[in-house]
Write a structure and sequence with these properties.
0% strand; single chain; mainly alpha
């Protein structure tokens, strides 16, 4: 559920978050337009801690449902 179709595999949600972060940093360095747009959306989300926490919890639920 990100800016591209890259798949990540991890044992924990924390590991998944780190893989996603690392990929995002690589794509930022490459100036990938889709990832830059997604990063801008995340920056907006981070301005509201309640919305950010709700988003993180929903992603963690999604991860947990797959494991």
């Amino acid at each position: 559920g990100g800016a591209c179709d890259k798949e990540f595999h991890a044992n924990t949600f924390g590991e998944m978050a780190e893989l996603s972060k690392k990929h995002g940093m690589e794509m930022h360095k490459n100036r990938d337009a889709n990832h830059l747009k997604a990063m801008q959306e995340m920056m907006e989300l981070m301005k509201d801690s309640k919305k950010m926490n709700a988003w993180m919890k929903s992603k963690q639920r999604e991860f947990n449902e797959l494991h």
